Amino acid sequence: MHDQLMALAEELTAAGESPASPCPDPVNAAMIRNWTQALGDRGDRWAATAPPAMIQVWSMPGLDRDKPASIADRPLTLLNESGFTGVVATNCEQTYDRYLRHGERLRSTMRFAGVTGPKRTGLGEGYFVTWYQAWYSGDERVAEMMFRVLKFRPRVRGAAKGRHPLRPAVGLDTRFFWDGVREGELRIQRCAECGRLRHPPGPMCPSCHATKRDHVAASGRGTLHSYVVHHHPPVPGHEPPFVVALVDLEEGVRMVGNLLDCPPGQVRVGMPVELIFQEMDDELTLPQWRPAGAPAASAASASGASTSAASASKAAPEPAAEAADGLPGLSVELTPTFVISTALATRDFTPVHHDTALARAQGSKDIFLNILTTIGLVQRYVLEGLPDAVLEGISVRLGVPAYAGDTLTMTGRVVDDRTVEVRGAVSLGDHAIATVRLKERA
Length: 442
Description:
Elements: H1 2-15, E1 18-19, H2 29-39, H3 73-81, E2 86-96, E3 107-121, E4 124-137, E5 140-152, H4 175-182, E6 187-191, E7 197-198, E8 213-217, E9 221-230, E10 242-249, E11 254-259, E12 272-279, E13 285-291, E14 330-333, H5 336-345, H6 356-361, H7 371-385, E15 391-398, E16 407-416, E17 419-426, E18 429-438
Antiparallel strand pairs: 1-3, 2-5, 2-15, 3-4, 4-5, 6-7, 6-8, 9-10, 9-12, 10-11, 12-13, 14-16, 15-18, 16-17, 17-18
Helix pairs in contact: 2-5
């Protein structure tokens, strides 16, 4: 299958840009109102133009059984037939040449950009598929988008998966640490008398010999102090080769964990790394490491028992308060109604955003926010903080899923007159890291 997939990807890439089906509806107030209400975008900003982050909505096919063909259909179908039935979006970059006016009719073109893989990920082994889409009003291009998805072979959840064969020993001295891991927090023991941090935890401070202790939450950032590549003997629940890392944390202690999403040949002492939580089974989660900035969805799993996307570095989301640069924070409660209604408003009928049972069958623990909603929330956040801004583009890299029942907290930083950086965090860590480009003011 791999060779057939790569040959198909090469064929499609060489074909270049080709016409896609016309957008089914003109830009209209009813769809805009539905979209803005679902995403909580209030006010009359869009009385004459359409929200730029809606651009893909105009060409989404919806539930039509006779869906128009897409440039990515053949490789996605081949992956489906080969058992790679799971799908999650990982990256999206939209460029807006201008805002759309009500009543405009659009057409679009598509071009294929390639397939990479196979990659072992926290969701399962998979391939990344990338394509571009452009929208035109008449002969004028009005927007372009790069879109990337991960097609993966879902891991089995529940009874068929079984327990991970190795379990940590949890005692009085270490219970606080594993309680923190379950809550998505990396905790370091601290002496309550002299304040010294220590790891591994113990009953007595090695510095002042006090027995009173508490803990602090680590930032989840560090550098690689040393490592080994394990080939033999076999370790139950792990597939060799895998990298075991000794990490210097920013807080001054060292910690051991597997290094994920990095082939052994690319590991280097001194490289920056960040925390990632890896689900080994329904009850056990382990703190592991990955190269700083690696996409969460592509975190390589050293264990066949991993059943869900490993989370990014966990730090408590900032409260929705005034940020240091003047942008207000934004907290969004991700109720099931919100997750489902926003997916429908973006004309995304993928089951993982609506159907809990089907989402779990694909290795997810629940329904989760779709990427079109995430982009819309980034737009809403920036324009609520900078109401006079005109957007030129939004680039989003997804991290951990934003599950129903969680809270999405958005914070941002104005880099310069043309750039805003946005972070969207949930309880598992960073859901999205976005860069918003602004048009130069006249």
